């Protein structure tokens, strides 16, 4: 359990301050990308693509774009913070302090989760201004938070196990991005061949996007309750995995 | 034992198939200034990183002030400050802020650490640089910041891994002075170095590590006495061709007018040598009695020089 509360608070707030201090790199890009998507799909392509589940295409893709931003930001924060500390030799100065593995992991995860959540809510605001309905605001915020937290946990795990920026980029390009696209950001999985639909059903990003699509647009490819439960289970598992890995000291204590 | 600051019992550490540390036992008393001396790759860093749990021992146990560093990690770690050998870096925060964070990890609030941080910044000559980020600091300043981080929570035990590696002479002397002050305050200090003069000057006891083993430990004075050879160096006024015959009992090494003699009892041999030379009307220019250094101790024990 947490007992070094001051240490825990210090590291958590440092992790949050770390990305706020470079907000041009950590907050603005997501906002700009979303505005570009809205512009391109809204102005140039809207009339060429038909509605999906009774929603205009421009609006249909927004929850997916939002989640992709949340996932990228949350993962990048913990993964890069961890790897950077490793490479810059600041990690040993943290590991020798009386912070337990649980306190260390949760502090890092909080940093990533806050970054995911801040990005998510900002983009939610932009999407709302662009005409996206928000059916259930509290549930929408909870979904954004759960996804931020779970992917911050995964990012921490990835950061701890990576030895170089190359490896980190590899995971980003070959796992996170394909899973995001296959999770149905730009389409309904009903449009996919049967085998691809089956694969989507084990993809956490599919549930992240569909939960949000339901809480905002009211349409979804999967049953909302099961999606939401899946998200909670996924968040729990990824947190446990991150804390356990920190506890083993793999690749950080030798 | 409760008067021990650091106790290492039968420490082994294996990396892949190679043992870096092969059974080290070390007891450092509270308030003692102890030096671990040895060549690069001897196992010094592995040993001290085992104390701070950055290294997971293959076998053995480490205690800090009587408490096990694994089962009592919060207490043990809160009593240690360590300055690692590798200089760290940070892109985000200014020097002062980094110290507040470091104190915070140890459970010290900003309010409570302010006085201490100001004191350390002043003491280590970093006060005017406190608002700079690390990329604006010189190597020497980064080294001082690292020591500041180790001291920020006022630990009982200070561990310094090669603290003066790569720093200029002036800073080295400043750091030595400061370490002596900390020692006088009662801190237990463990220092690793491969600079002989550093260990000789600062440490009350020195342990020499070679090839993963502690091959000897004692006070600097006793270690030097252990080397059963001291030198006598005599310069004569002129060159004499038959010096080696005259001094043949002492097995001298002669180079023109320089005579070097290794002996176990320089105090007894010197008068005899002077007498011999006088009897042969050989005039003496000067006499030197160079003392044995820890370098000689290392050479004597391992047959190698420490920084080879």
What percentage of amino acids of chain B are in beta strands? Answer: 25-35%
Number of strands of chain A: 0
Number of helices, counting only DSSP H or I runs of 4 residues or more of chain B: 11
Proportion of residues in extended strands of chain A: under 5%
Summarize, please.
The complex is a heterodimer of chains A (254) and B (308). By secondary structure, chain A is mainly alpha-helical. Chain A has helices at residues 5-20, 23-26, 28-45, 57-60, 62-87, 91-95, 101-129, 137-161, 165-182, 194-200, 204-216, 224-248.
Structure write-up:
The complex is a heterodimer of chains A (254) and B (308). Chain A is mostly helical and 254 residues long. Chain A has helices at 5-20, 23-26, 28-45, 57-60, 62-87, 91-95, 101-129, 137-161, 165-182, 194-200, 204-216, 224-248. Chain A has one domain (22-248). Chain B is 35% helix and 28% strand. Chain B has eleven helices and 14 strands. Chain B has helices at 44-51, 73-78, 95-105, 110-123, 139-151, 169-184, 196-202, 220-226, 243-246, 266-279, 294-302; strands spanning 4-15, 18-29, 33-37, 59-64, 67-68, 80-83, 157-161, 188-193, 205-210, 213-219, 230-236, 253-255, 258-263, 284-288. The radius of gyration of chain B is 24 Å and the shape is elongated. The mean pLDDT of chain B is 87. The A-B interface holds A 3-7, 9-11, 14, 17-18, 21-22, 84, 88-90, 92-100, 249, 253-254 and B 15, 49, 52-56, 73-75, 77-78, 80, 82, 84, 86-93, 101-102, 104-109, 149.
């Amino acid at each position: 359990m947490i007992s070094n509360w001051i240490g825990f608070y210090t590291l958590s707030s440092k992790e949050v301050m770390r990305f706020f201090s470079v907000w041009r790199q950590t907050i603005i890009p997501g906002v700009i990308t979303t505005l570009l998507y809205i512009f391109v799909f809204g102005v140039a392509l809207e009339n060429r693509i038909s509605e999906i589940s009774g929603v205009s295409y421009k609006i249909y893709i927004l929850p997916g774009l939002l989640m992709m931003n949340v996932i990228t930001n949350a993962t990048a924060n913990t993964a890069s913070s961890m790897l950077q500390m490793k490479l810059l030799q600041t990690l040993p100065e943290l590991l020798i302090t009386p912070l337990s593995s649980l306190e260390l992991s949760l502090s890092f995860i909080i940093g990533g989760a806050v970054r995911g959540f801040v990005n998510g809510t900002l983009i939610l605001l932009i999407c709302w201004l662009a005409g996206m309905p928000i059916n259930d605001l509290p549930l929408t915020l909870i979904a954004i938070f759960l996804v931020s937290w779970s992917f911050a946990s995964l990012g921490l795990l990835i950061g701890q196990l990576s030895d170089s920026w190359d490896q980190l980029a590899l995971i980003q390009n070959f796992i996170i991005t394909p899973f995001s696209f296959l999770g149905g950001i730009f389409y309904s999985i009903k449009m996919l061949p049967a085998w691809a639909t089956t694969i989507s059903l084990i993809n956490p990003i599919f549930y992240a996007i569909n939960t949000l699509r339901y809480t905002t647009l009211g349409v979804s490819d999967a049953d909302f309750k099961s999606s939401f439960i899946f998200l909670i289970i996924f968040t729990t598992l990824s947190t446990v995995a991150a804390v356990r890995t920190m506890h083993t000291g793999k690749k950080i204590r030798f | 034992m409760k008067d021990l600051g650091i106790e290492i019992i039968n420490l082994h550490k294996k990396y892949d198939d190679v043992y870096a540390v092969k059974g080290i036992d070390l007891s450092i008393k509270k308030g003692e200034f102890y030096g671990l001396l040895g060549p690069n790759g001897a196992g010094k860093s592995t040993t001290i990183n085992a104390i701070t749990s950055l290294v997971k021992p293959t076998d053995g146990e480490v205690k800090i002030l009587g408490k096990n560093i694994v089962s009592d990690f919060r207490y043990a770690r809160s009593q240690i400050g360590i300055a690692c050998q590798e200089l760290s870096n940070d892109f985000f925060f200014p020097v002062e802020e980094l110290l507040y964070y470091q104190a915070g990890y140890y459970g010290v609030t900003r309010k409570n650490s302010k006085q201490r941080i100001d004191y350390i910044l002043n003491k280590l000559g970093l006060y005017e640089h406190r608002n700079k980020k690390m990329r604006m600091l010189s190597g020497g300043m980064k080294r001082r910041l690292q020591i500041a981080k180790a001291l920020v929570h006022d630990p009982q035990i200070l561990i310094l891994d090669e603290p003066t590696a790569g720093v200029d002479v002036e800073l080295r002397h400043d750091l030595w002075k400061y370490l002596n002050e900390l020692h006088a305050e009662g801190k237990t200090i463990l220092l690793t170095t491969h600079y002989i003069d550093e260990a000789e000057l600062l440490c009350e006891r020195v342990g020499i590590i070679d090839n993963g083993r502690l091959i000897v430990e004692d006070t600097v004075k006793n270690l030097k006495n252990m080397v059963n050879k001291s030198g006598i160096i005599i310069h004569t006024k002129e060159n004499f061709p038959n010096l080696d015959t005259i001094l043949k009992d002492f097995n001298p090494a002669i180079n023109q007018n320089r005579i070097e003699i290794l002996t176990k009892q320089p105090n007894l041999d010197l008068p005899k040598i002077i007498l011999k030379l006088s009897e042969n009307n050989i005039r003496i220019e000067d006499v030197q009695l160079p003392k044995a250094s820890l370098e000689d101790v290392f050479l004597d024990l391992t047959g190698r020089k420490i920084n080879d």
